[in-house]
Amino acid sequence: MCESLVYWVWLNELVGLSLKAKRKLLAAYGNPKEIFQANFDCVQSVLAKGFRYATAVAENPKEMAFASVWTGRNLKIAEAILNNNEHHNIHVLSAYDDQYHHIFSSDQQAPLVLYYRGTLSDPSVQVVGVIGSRSCTSYGEMVTSSAVADLVEKRNIIASGLSFGIDALAHRITLENQGITYAFLPCGLHKAQPASHAELMEQIADTGAVITPYAFGKQALPFRFIGRNGVLSSWCNTLLVIEARLESGSMNTAKSALAKGKRVLAVPNSLLEPKSCGTNYLLSVGAQAYLNDHLFTQDCTNRQPDSESPVHLGEAAVVEALRQKALTTSELASLVDNTNLSVMECLADMELAEKIVFRSDGKWHLIRGI
Predict the structure, then answer these.
(1) Cα–Cα nearest to 239, from 170, 178, 172, 188
(2) What's the number of CA atoms in the CB half-sphere (13 Å) around residue 244?
(3) Other C-beta atoms within 10 Å of 148: how many?
(4) What gap in Å lies between CA 77 and CA 71, rounded to an integer?
(5) Among the residues of the chain, which ranges form H helices?
(6) Cα–Cα distance between 66 and 18 in angstroms, integer?
(7) What are phi and psi of 181, to 5 degrees?
(8) How high is the pLDDT of residue 230?
(9) 356-358 and 288-289 as β-strands: parallel, antiparallel, unpaired?
(10) So what's the pLDDT on residue 138?
């Protein structure tokens, strides 16, 4: 057991101090062991400088409670956590580790410690988060499959949250394409969340990593999903949101990423699709539109397709089909795919050009006059 890790885990798990206070102590003392060995008066003096611990202990019940915690501090909880880690092949990342320090130093909300299973790649490799609705549409599934395959081909690491829907699909498509994926959990690494994704979690750990800010045995309580989302948004260089309702975990992650200055891409969709209200909203508050793979390599240019281009041929196939009857995205997919053009790109272009419209019956309709 590494001696320094015991103190990192102790400080991370210490109750009675906020993350902001722990960071302040770390800046003053340099490492957790020095903090552990400091007496209460010295700790209080550091925290009192421009912080909330400015009054005498006798006048502040919270400080009196913290004084009691500090007097009784010990390493038992930290040692138990590290013992569990040894038995379950769980590794610890501290704030000063090469794999994590650049993230910790750039995000004031990043925890002091992370736990992971598997293997972490070199920090220079780009990490792209791919997240979205748990009950995704066929459109969302097709965008995810296409986008992830393209990102893996470009040697990006794919990060997501192991949840149902888009998250799990992003992990699976990565593995199918022999890529590396990271899964971020809202609980300890004693189980998968959801439990039905236990096999997927093991497959991810075989070549990539499963990462969490929570120690072994901690359950997936609601507030821990928020903590997980924050770590995921910090770890990603780019975040791609496929589908999301306005009030959802994906939106929480996206807003966190935008606040941290991360590049956020959102997939545009019909304004009548509830699962895309969030992504359409993100486009109005700073996210970039994800229309095709060219957004990751170069700026898109506006040009008119010639009569023999795949775009023109794809539109012709869609128009001919919709003249007969309204069709779902899945029903149109086979027609457009035969032209070697992504159905998502074709339908998006046609909708923006007001040639087709997606209505509340879940089908695409040809606009009169076409």
Answers:
(1) 170
(2) 26
(3) 28
(4) 16
(5) 3-13, 19-29, 32-37, 40-48, 61-71, 76-87, 101-106, 138-153, 166-176, 198-207, 222-235, 249-259, 277-283, 310-324, 329-337, 343-352
(6) 11
(7) -135, 145
(8) 96
(9) unpaired
(10) 87
One domain for residues 122 and 230: yes
The 10s digit of each residue's pLDDT in 293-324 is: 443 443 433 334 444 444 455 778 888 888 88
Residues 17 and 351: their CA atoms lie apart, in Å, by 53
Instruction: Evaluate whether residue 259 is within a structural domain.
Output: yes
Specify whether the CB–CB gap between 348 and 268 falls below 8 A: yes
Give, in order, the Cα–Cα distances in Å from 81 to each of 13, 28, 74, 358.
10, 26, 13, 52
- Which domain does 269 fall in, by range? 117-296
Considering the entire predicted model, what is its pTM? Answer: 0.76
Query: Which two structure tokens, joined as six digits, stand for 33?
Result: 């062991």
Q: Looking at residue 269, what DSSP letter applies? A: -
Tell me the pairing of strands 157-160 and 113-118.
Answer: unpaired
Number of domains in the chain: 3
Whether 48 maps to a domain, the answer reads: yes
Residue 39 and residue 181 in one domain: no
